[in-house]
Input
Amino acid sequence: MVPRGHKHITYGPFTKKAVIKMIEKFDKFVRGINKVMDTLLVIDMLVMFVILMLQIISRFVAFFIIDWTQDLLCFLLVASVYLGVCSATYMGKQIRLEFFVDLFPKRVADIILCVADVISIIYLAIICKDAATLALDNISIKLGTSIIPYGYYYVTVVIGFIGMIFNFINLILKRIPSITGKEAA
Output
């Protein structure tokens, strides 16, 4: 029962409170994904550092080459890029032309950003599908002295882009109250 004089706000079949609770749960889920991605990124960087030190010591102190270190470093560098793009999206540091969007009123700017995010999600989903196909096609192929099968390079793309998709959905959900004019009082 809504008190007299108060407007009962709904989003389709859901009440405002239910929608806010769903958005908060999704936000918590996305924050968890980003914590995992950030942890993997830190581990990736530490392993890269250790392998690079091992490579330097083996080449310039012990005068022998460990073949697989170069390939593993290359893989870890690719992985760090795709884990990093996920973190950048979560922190709102991805590349976008907000100086143009900032010229508009907040509601219009949020609509433009949501449309851009939907376009980004569609693009990322297409790339994810293609990367997953390439990963499966190349999962058993090893190049040169690499200890990492070639397909795993594409797996890093899929993981990073799925994280980005979740982050873009989260950004859209956070803009809905501003767009609909049903912001919390």
